[in-house]
Write a structure and sequence with these properties.
It is a single chain. By secondary structure, this protein is mainly alpha-helical. The chain is 88% helix and 2% strand. A hairpin with a 2-residue loop joins strand 1 and strand 2. It is rod-shaped and about 190 Å long.
Length: 189
C-alpha cells in the first residue's frame, strides 16, 4: 500500500503542477487580452471623446433653438386652431344666411308661379269663353244658313241676296253673306 500511496502522491503532484501551469497560462492570456482591451478602449475613447464633446456642444447650442421652435410650433397650432374655429363660424353663418335666402327666394318664386298660374287661368277663362261663344255664334249662323239652303232653292236665295260687287247692304250682313254665298264657284256679294 505504501507503493500506491507514493504513486498517488506523484500523480497528485503532477496534477498540481499541470494546474499551476494552466492557471499561469490563463493568467498570462487574460493579461494580454486585458491589455488589448485597454488599448482598444483607449483608442475608442480617444476617437469618440471628441465626437461626444462636439455633440454636447451642438446640443448646448441647439437646445434653445429647439425650445423656441417647439414653442413657436405650439403657438402656430394655437393660432391655426383659433382661425379654423373663426372660419368654421363664418362658413356656418354664411351657410345659414344662404339657406335663409334660398328659402326666401323659393317663397318668392312659388308666389310668382302661383300668380302666373292664376293669371293664366283667368286669361284663359276671359279669352277662351268669348271665343267659344263667338264660335258657337258662327256655328249657329252656319246652321241657320244651311237650313235656309235646304228649305229654299238656290234661285230664291240669289233673289233674296242679290248683291253686286259694289253692294250697299247693311254692314253686319255683308260679310257673312259674302263669305257663305257661293254660286257657281264664285263668291257673290
Amino acid at each position: 500500500m505504501q507503493f500506491w500511496l507514493e504513486v498517488f502522491s506523484i500523480v497528485a503532484a503532477i496534477a498540481l503542477v499541470v494546474q499551476v501551469v494552466i492557471l499561469t497560462l490563463l493568467f498570462l492570456e487574460l493579461r494580454r487580452t486585458t491589455d488589448n482591451m485597454n488599448r482598444l478602449v483607449g483608442d475608442l475613447q480617444s476617437r469618440v471623446g471628441p465626437l461626444l464633446t462636439r455633440v454636447q456642444i451642438l446640443l448646448d447650442d441647439t437646445q434653445p433653438k429647439i425650445s423656441n421652435l417647439v414653442s413657436d410650433a405650439s403657438h402656430i397650432v394655437y393660432l391655426a386652431r383659433g382661425q379654423a374655429q373663426k372660419i368654421d363660424r363664418v362658413f356656418t353663418d354664411a351657410a345659414d344666411r344662404l339657406r335663409g335666402q334660398l328659402v326666401h327666394a323659393d317663397r318668392i318664386l312659388t308666389g310668382t308661379l302661383e300668380a302666373v298660374e292664376d293669371a293664366g287661368s283667368k286669361f284663359s277663362r276671359s279669352f277662351w269663353r268669348p271665343m267659344h261663344k263667338a264660335s258657337a255664334l258662327v256655328q249657329g249662323i252656319k246652321v241657320g244658313l244651311d237650313l235656309l239652303r235646304s228649305l229654299f232653292p238656290s234661285s230664291w236665295l240669289s233673289l233674296i241676296f242679290s248683291f253686286d260687287h259694289h253692294c250697299s247692304c247693311p254692314a253686319g250682313l255683308a260679310l257673312p253673306v259674302r263669305l257663305l254665298m257661293v254660286e257657281g264657284g264664285a263668291p257673290r256679294c
